[in-house]
């Protein structure tokens, strides 16, 4: 069980955050779009830290779980906490896939595929515009004004 509050944002919080999103962020996060391959801001990010949900700030992946999948999107083999990710069956575009959304706010992150490296064998293939990044030692974002859970470290790989 996670130490983070997974209660969804209020209607007012959702409106305020949505108003601050760029058009491409809205298209991906809220309309389940996909950014073009090989152009995302975090594809070649090699800094140590934590990737967070761009919409609500929930920690999603540690940089230590990131790997180069060669697909053109940031890829991770393990989430920060399994409770922070929700999987949904996706049958769009004539395919059967598993969509990945933020467990707190429901924002679209990307898809999960069973072709990743050990130890999990998973490839969480994400859109850079769905993510924020916090370098090691910096405080995690608190976009919903709930505070950081007691005992939760500053961003750490």
Folded structure, characterized:
This protein has 157 residues and is α+β, with helices and mostly antiparallel strands. It has one domain: Peptide methionine sulfoxide reductase (Metal Binding Protein, Guanine Nucleotide Exchange Factor, Chain A, Beta Complex). It is built from 2 helices and 9 strands. The chain has helices at residues 11-19, 23-29, and strands spanning 49-53, 59-62, 66-67, 75-76, 85-90, 97-102, 108-113, 123-126, 131-135. The chain has a 6-stranded antiparallel beta sheet, with no helix packed on it. A 3-stranded antiparallel beta sheet has the order 2-1-9, with no helix packed on it. The mean pLDDT is 91. Residues 14-136 form the MsrB domain.
CATH class: Mainly Beta
| CATH architecture assignment name | Beta Complex
CATH fold naming? Metal Binding Protein, Guanine Nucleotide Exchange Factor, Chain A
Work out the count of structural domains. Answer: 1
Quick recap:
It catalyses: L-methionyl-[protein] + [thioredoxin]-disulfide + H2O = L-methionyl-(R)-S-oxide-[protein] + [thioredoxin]-dithiol. By secondary structure, the chain is of the alpha+beta class.
């Amino acid at each position: 069980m996670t130490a983070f509050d997974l209660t969804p944002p209020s209607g007012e919080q959702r409106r305020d955050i949505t108003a601050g999103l760029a058009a491409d962020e809205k298209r991906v996060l809220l309309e389940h779009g996909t950014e073009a391959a090989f152009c995302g801001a975090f594809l070649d990010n090699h800094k140590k830290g934590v990737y967070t949900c761009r919409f609500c700030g929930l920690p999603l992946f540690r940089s230590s779980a990131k790997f180069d999948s060669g697909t053109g999107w940031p890829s991770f083999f393990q989430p920060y906490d399994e409770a922070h990710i929700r999987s949904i069956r996706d049958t769009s575009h004539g395919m059967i896939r598993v969509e990945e959304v933020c467990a707190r706010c429901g924002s679209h992150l990307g898809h999960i595929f069973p072709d990743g490296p050990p130890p999990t064998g998973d490839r969480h293939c994400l859109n850079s515009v769905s993510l924020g990044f916090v370098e090691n030692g910096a405080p995690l974002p608190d976009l919903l004004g709930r505070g950081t859970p007691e005992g939760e470290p500053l961003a750490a790989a």
